[in-house]
Amino acid sequence: MESKGSILIKLMLLLQYLSVLCVSQNFDFFFFVQQWPGSACNTQQGCCYPTTGKPPADFAISGLFPSNNDGSYPYNCDTNNPFQQSQISDLRSNLQSNWPSLLCPSSDGSYTWSAAWDIFGTCSESVLNQHDYFAAALNLKEQTNLLRALATGVILSNGGSYALDVTKEVIKNSVGYTPFIECNVDSSGNSQLYQIYLCVDISGSYLVDCPVVPKNVVECGSTFLYPSFY
Q: Considering Cα of 9, then 14, then 16, then 17, what sign does the dihedral take?
């Protein structure tokens, strides 16, 4: 017969194991989302530039979201592992350029990164710690280079109108995978390119075919505007 001490140790180990299972949420892929700042700022709501200054006229990271093949997604997975700025100190300058906050009031971006990690990043911590999560997003932005990809198809941020099917094909020809493209409306009510979604494997390393379209997001119509941000 096992001693009480032995049984207690086994129970403690079981609780630790169950705790790890609760934290290490299962997911099937990431949605990697990039936003065009010109379309984020010329809406009726407007935007506020970061305290570090106006961001570059380039696509900005909007998020790296763990997602499931059935369209669901985990969030708020581990409240015991909050965002720590010290974990990304070497990435800070890069994040300010490539993952800026356009929310009002103006900020240095820390709140945006904190929310990204606490709500979504913790759901990927079984494969990506905090530093790796943000580094993966930065690497994916560099890898996809949407501004250059669109320019190769002469799709330019000059306020012109472009066809959705042509735009998707141009991006696919550059990155190898078909994107999902979301629009919003400008202050005059015109549909404009807003966010571009690509899918990434669970390691956060390379693009994959999207198994589902993003939930509660409506794709652009057949044409849209691509406004400037200068």
A: positive
Q: Are 37 and 195 in contact (CB under 8 A)?
A: no
Say if residues 182 and 194 touch (Cβ distance below 8 Å).
Answer: yes
Phi, psi values for residue 42, rounded to 5°: -100, 30
Dihedral angle of Cα 212, 121, 97, 52, to the nearest 10 degrees: 130
Q: Is the pLDDT of residue 124 over 50?
A: yes
Helices 130-144 and 164-175: crossing angle, nearest 10°?
110
Q: Is the dihedral of CA 92, 93, 98, 102 positive or negative?
A: positive
Q: Give 54's DSSP letter.
A: P
H helices present in the chain, as ranges: 4-23, 37-41, 92-98, 110-115, 130-144, 146-152, 164-175
- The two tokens of residue 144 are 């996809």
pLDDT at residue 201 greater than cutoff 70 = yes
What does pTM read for this prediction?
A: 0.89
Residue 22 pLDDT: 42
